[in-house]
TrEMBL record:
This is Stage V sporulation protein AD. It comes from Hominisplanchenecus faecis. Transmembrane segments: none annotated. InterPro entries: SpoVAD, SpoVAD_sf, Thiolase-like. It comes from the Bacteria. The gene is spoVAD. It holds the Pfam family SpoVAD.
């Protein structure tokens, strides 16, 4: 049986294993610090398709195919897919995975979706409802700018607080079959709203949610920051990182030595002109597959807390003058 832990967490008595993963990304991501570690770099931002949305669907398909190939599995062996993206009605996902004919749970947690898919997939495998499950997320700079901000041809200037949406996808095969990394617990985040209205400063929107979830995880599992080799947020960037560290200090936790952010790791701030860093569903997913999991599988890191972060806005809510709430979901991943 799984154990409900504290107020918002689960400790898996039968931990599901991260059996295989794959990362696919665009040219800009390939030129960054993780470029050599990403499985497939797509030089063409359109991926041979006629629009950004179809290109993003192709990112997901390629990531899934690579993950299945690594695992030696066929699509018909997969019980469920938990997947999502940033686009309205999850069109990158629904049009992307339809050819696989695998039962789908479409999920939206903004840029925190990787944490949400992994959490629900882990619960499903641990509870015995499936032996093989895929967790997949994606984002695309072109499709995100088109939906949330301005068409690329407009050439608008971005403030220094803005992040750059990652063109990329990560696919993860969770299994009851043993491997070198396992998910031992999760902490599901709450919607946290500090009243920020600037959609071009998503780090400030998401940092309070990240602080809330990290604090709750430490309390629920009765741990200190040093019990984790790394505490890794999804895409707070440089602005959000500063806010997160201050908020957690106020709560009595100093995570400066343990903290990393996927949005900071995926781009070179000086050479790539991404301002505050990276963001998007693909940001944490690509970084997890390309950089984080290999370190866990090798035993360089014994236990990490992976905390993808999301800004819960839409074009409708923004145009109506609403605030931008945040959410963050934490996943405990350990070497085995």
């Amino acid at each position: 049986m799984n154990s409900m832990t504290g107020e918002q967490s689960i400790c898996f008595e039968k931990p599901p294993y991260l059996f295989a993963s794959a990362s696919v990304a665009g040219k800009k991501e390939g030129e960054g610090p993780l470029g050599e570690k990403i499985d497939l770099i797509c030089e063409d931002p359109m991926l041979g398709e006629e629009n950004w949305e179809k290109a993003e669907s192709m990112l997901q398909i390629k990531a899934i195919q690579l993950a299945l190939e690594k695992a030696g599995k066929m699509p018909q062996q997969i019980r469920y897919i938990f997947a999502g993206d940033l686009l309205g009605q999850l069109i990158a996902t629904s049009f992307g995975v339809e050819e696989l004919e695998i039962p789908l749970f479409g999920l939206y947690g903004a840029c925190s979706t990787c944490g949400e898919t992994l959490s629900l997939a882990a619960m499903t495998v641990s509870a015995g409802y499936a032996d093989q499950v895929l967790a997949v997320t994606s984002s695309h700079f072109g499709s995100a700018e088109k939906q949330f901000r301005f068409p690329l041809g407009y050439g608008n200037q971005r403030p220094l607080s803005a992040t750059w949406t990652v063109t990329g996808s990560g696919a993860f095969l969770l299994s009851a079959q043993k491997s070198h990394a396992k998910i031992t617990g999760i902490t599901t985040g709450k919607v946290v709203d500090y009243g920020v209205r600037d959609s071009l400063n998503m780090g400030a929107c998401m940092a309070p949610a990240a602080a809330d979830t990290i604090c709750q995880n430490l309390m629920d599992f009765n741990r200190q920051p040093q019990d984790y080799d790394r505490i890794i947020t999804g895409d707070l960037g440089y602005v959000g990182q500063t806010i997160l560290l201050e908020l957690l200090k106020e709560k009595g936790f100093d995570i400066k030595k343990q903290h990393m952010d996927c949005g900071i790791e995926i781009y070179d701030r000086k050479l790539q002109d991404t301002h505050s860093g990276g963001s998007g569903c693909g940001c944490s997913a690509v970084t997890l597959s390309a950089m984080i999991l290999p370190k866990i599988e090798k035993g360089d890191w014994k236990r990490i807390l992976f905390v993808p972060t999301g800004a819960l806005l839409s074009t409708v809510s923004f145009n109506e003058g609403q605030t931008v709430p945040g959410i963050a979901h934490a996943v405990v991943i350990e070497h085995c």
